[in-house]
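hey
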């Protein structure tokens, strides 16, 4: 295993990548995983691509590989099936570098549907289903450093070595439980690349306590969050490098009207004031206009009747989950139940396979 050498970083990589591309296109299934770094960029930097085919395991070094695009057609096609664990994070990394990935099978999602923890980790799943203990000592390693050690290469290969066997076992269990339709629906949903990214105008949803603010400050927080998201994306820098949460909160709380007042905020660096000060003041002025953004729904005080209704819905979910021997959050989260209680017909428990399994019971309990 220590003799594995990632493809990349040399002038003769084209034939190897062409060979791998043809192999992927012809394979019935392939396992995929990524190693990445997101400390210095807005988009996570792809540092290593691990691939498992029925014939072999391959590591691709994307840091100095001019031929990654050769693999994109196979990844974008419905066939072969691409097996990943907790796929969303890997898809976010792969999309900017190689485009969309379709035909997905997520072993974490499948494990949840057969009764395991919704967020079960890969190593835990391998141990439980295959009886293999994986070395996770390189989980926090810096994968952008070169050369990679022999131990790192072994670790990287192990992350795809067991994906195909896990899929076979999970398919068998899913079929025995009569839940293949559930699985098919969940996997099709993964193919929607639009779900991978947050639009700047929705970046405010990450902010805590925004609904507790008055209308003017809500608008300011939303405008600042959207500006920060767009600036971070355009410059490919972490959001916190553009404006950290402490600085954003300070601006929202003080709502400075001039650059001089903005400079009084100790949470902001002088360089930020110099380069972005006038624009931030413009956002403060814009936030004072009620027409700038539609208001957010108000946060009402706890209503005993609503609280009781949510508890009743949660009890329904618990009862059904226990009968199915499945985790409750697979069927419905608290946020899902709040949507049901508010009358949203598109609430997740009222759509797809969940409507048949839990939706009708929830509606009957309202």
């Amino acid at each position: 295993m220590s003799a594995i050498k990632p493809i990349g970083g040399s002038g003769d990589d084209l034939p190897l990548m062409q060979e791998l591309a043809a192999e992927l296109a012809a394979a019935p299934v392939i396992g995929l995983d990524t190693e990445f770094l997101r400390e210095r960029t807005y988009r996570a930097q792809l540092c290593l691509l691990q691939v498992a085919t029925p014939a072999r395991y391959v590591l691709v070094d994307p840091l100095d590989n001019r031929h990654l695009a050769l693999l994109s057609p196979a990844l974008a096609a419905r066939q072969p099936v691409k097996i990943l664990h907790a796929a969303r994070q890997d898809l976010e990394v792969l999309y900017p570098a190689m485009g969309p990935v379709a035909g997905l099978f997520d072993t974490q999602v499948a494990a949840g549907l057969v009764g395991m923890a919704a967020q079960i980790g890969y190593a835990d799943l391998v141990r439980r289903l295959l009886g293999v203990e994986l070395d996770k000592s390189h989980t926090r390693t810096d994968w952008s450093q070169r050369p990679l050690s022999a131990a790192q290469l072994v670790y990287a290969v192990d992350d795809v070595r067991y994906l195909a066997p896990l899929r076979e076992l999970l398919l068998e269990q899913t079929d025995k439980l009569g839940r293949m339709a559930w699985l098919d629906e969940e996997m099709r949903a993964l193919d929607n690349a639009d779900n991978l990214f947050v639009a700047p105008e929705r970046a405010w949803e990450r902010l805590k306590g925004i609904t507790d603010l008055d209308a003017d400050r809500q608008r300011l927080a939303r405008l600042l969050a959207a500006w920060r998201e767009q600036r971070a994306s355009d410059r490919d820098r972490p959001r916190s490098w553009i404006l950290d949460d402490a600085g954003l909160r300070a601006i929202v709380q003080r709502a400075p009207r001039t650059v001089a007042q903005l400079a009084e905020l100790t949470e902001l660096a002088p360089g930020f004031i110099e380069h972005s000060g006038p624009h931030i003041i413009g956002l403060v002025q814009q936030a004072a206009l009620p027409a700038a953004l539609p208001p957010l729904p108000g946060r009402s005080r706890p209503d005993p009747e609503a609280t009781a209704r949510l508890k009743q819905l949660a009890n329904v979910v618990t009862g059904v989950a226990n009968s199915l021997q499945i985790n409750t959050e697979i069927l419905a989260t608290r946020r899902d139940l709040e949507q049901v209680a508010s009358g949203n017909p598109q609430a997740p428990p009222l759509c797809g396979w969940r409507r048949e399994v839990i939706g009708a019971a929830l509606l009957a309990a309202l």
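The mean pLDDT is 93. The CA atoms of residues 51 and 99 lie 16 Å apart.
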